[in-house]
Amino acid sequence: MIRTLIALLLAALPLSAAHIPYSLSPASGPKSGGTTVILRGTFSNASQDVLFGGVRSPSVTRLDEHTVSAVAPAHFGDAVEVEIFERAVRLPAELTYTYRGDAPFEQFERLLLPIFLPPIQGAFGSEFRTYLRLSGVEMELFGLLPGSTPYPIGPFPTSAPAPNGGTPGRFIYAPKDGVKTLAATLRVADTSRSAENFGTELPIVRASDFVEDVLVLHGVPTDPRFRNTLRIYARDEGLLSIHIESESVSRQVQLRKNDLNDPFEPAYAVFTDFPVGRGELRVTLEGPSARGPSPPIYYLPFWGFVSVTNNETQHITTITRQP
Amino acid sequence: MRFLFAVLFAFAAVAQQPDYTITPSRGPVAGGTEVRITSREDLGGWPYALIFGETPVPAVLADSHTLLATTPAHLPGTVPVTIFQYDFGIATDLTFTFEGEAEEAFDRLLLPVFVPPIRGAFGSEFRTDLRISLDRSATARVPIYGVMDPKIYGANVPWELDEDPRSLRIEEGFGTPGRFIYVPKGRAKELSMNLRAYDVSRASSNYGTQIPIVPSSAFATDGYSSKIGIIGVPTSPPFRSKLRIYGTPESGAALDVDIEMHGVTEMRRVDLIPTGDLYTPGYAELDLPDGGIVNVWIRVHTPPISALLPAPDIWAFVSVTNNETQHITTITPRP
To answer: Tell me, what's the pLDDT at A174?
Structure first.
């Protein structure tokens, strides 16, 4: 009887171990990451990978057969799924981790894609598309997929999917320790004229390229065969002045965004009211700190560029401030 | 007789004594060296300045034979020193030597294509157009080295942007094809620049292509671990795609260029030769093979001359030109 009982108990031990439900603690932490999360369940001797909302934990340690610790990575999401993999096999853990607090701007480099749109039908049968190709060390970028879904990239170049809609520009975020390895090409092309030209490369703009006071754009043509579009971007809404060389009066433009809490949507303004037949002009953008009281009431880092499009060929030239 | 010798000796001493002396006559490229110029003649009481090469600085009269001034930042090299008195310059035979590396006091910017007018296929004529202006935020004049044609103005002559003129435009470049220009450290942000290449024969159908002006920070600076990726390059007719690679002038290296197409990688090797000229980048170009969309990876392999040379900082881009329309698209390693 006792032997039978012992045998039953011994037989039940591995079963009970296999059935320890998966859990994690703590179940929440800041979006900046860095929280050490204890995962409980049953783990083999194989190494574990833990993903928080699709982002790989930077540090995973198996403490014993029932315990693994994982450091939560920085993330833009709120409540995210936690996935545990052993030898690329996903364990049946149904866990949720909740990110709290402010967006983790400190952990990421912000990059502006000035134009990143779904296909747009233009004049003369044109159809403009934007193409974004990316590669780098294995890392996840935020802002390319809807919501806070990360977009993984690696050494093999991939083409990012075009967005479904939204404003022309988009902020994306790359981990600071990976951005140096990032190779990326953003291009806008008229598919109806792909035999004539390969389109135009658009700059991918680092946050450090945004200015607070004055931004000058040189050589903007006023030839009626071309149409000019000035596009201005900032992280936050605000008012800017536009001064066109041949005019004595500055214009005001308001940068707006649809969702003030969306870290991926730039505040944006567009200006097309350029004079015609005045030669090549210099256009100066001034932020609120350029002419206001000293010290300024507030700063509005911004960036802008002019696209010059030939009305017939639809060929686009960009004019940005360099370097 | 003794009197005659005395007079002759005195005359010889006067004849050998230089009109001006400068102390010290060497200092760092960052400037800030306090120099003393002494004059055999009475200097009078006019307002003074000293001009180091082409760069003026104010000078103060310490006494009737002594001027004091502080050297400006200047690219390395020996330059003449001119005394500027009221409204005219006095040649002195004095020189001052600026010592050190340019990067200690200057930011280096690459103009990747800055060439004289070039006639191309199908009646095309390519030109480059460089514009620079001084922002209103600028607190003082900004000397820009490398934008004056050395064949006309000599080497190391800066163009100075100030209240007047505040802007500069150069429609005929003199790069080979690229050129480095130099701005005092931290002051490039006070300038707005734009570089454009365009085909004058097609000016009505397109406005050309903006060419990036590349700061040192955009160069790969990891020595023999440096790597640059340029992805999504078309290499099919009717386009011709040319890879252009630039290196800092002090050193050279052999570079491995991996050209990956349809999952197959072909390796080419090119040499970047040190130029020894501050303004002339090391340069190599490579026509990419036809066949589809390619990804290009450039890695420093070995120095071509001596393993003792440091690896150059490198940067590269691809120009994609339509053979018929001559329209150019750039593909750069962003961001």
So the answer is: 95
Are B297 and B235 in contact by the 8 Å Cβ rule? The answer is no
Q: What element of type H or E holds B6? A: helix B2-16
- Min Cα distance B213 → chain A (Å) is 5
> At A227, phi and psi to the nearest 5?
-115, 140
**Residue B58 neighbours by CB distance under 10 Å:** 12
Q: What are phi and psi of B123, to 5 degrees?
A: 75, 10
The pLDDT assigned to B18 comes to: 63
Q: Does residue B232 carry a pLDDT above 90?
A: no
| A51: pLDDT strictly greater than 90 | yes
List A118's β-bridge partners, or say none: none
- Count Cβ neighbours within 10 Å for each residue of B95-108 and write b for 16 or more, e otherwise: ebebeeebeebbbb
pLDDT higher than threshold 80 for residue A65: yes
Query: What is the H or E stretch that residue B326 is in?
Result: none
Cis peptide preceding B335, ω within 30 of 0? yes
Instruction: Tell me which residue has tokens 């043509």.
Output: A221
Length of chain A equals 323
The answer to whether B327 faces chain A, any CB pair under 8 Å, is yes
- Cα(A184)–Cα(A143) distance, integer angstroms: 15
Q: Can the peptide bond before residue B238 be classed as cis, meaning omega within 30 degrees of 0?
A: yes
User: How confident is the model over B282-302, as a mean pLDDT?
Assistant: 89
Distance (Å) from the alpha carbon of B315 to chain A's nearest alpha carbon: 12
Q: Which of B192, B198, B230, B297 to mutate to test the interface with A (most CBs of A within 10 A)?
A: B192
Beta-carbon neighbour count of residue A65 at 10 Å?
A: 13
Run of H or E including A11: helix A2-18
Tokens of B300: 């420093």
Measure the CA–CA gap between B56 and B58, rounded to whole angstroms: 7
C-alpha distance from B209 to closest chain A C-alpha (Å): 6
**pLDDT score recorded for residue B324:** 78
Structure tokens at B187: 């002051």
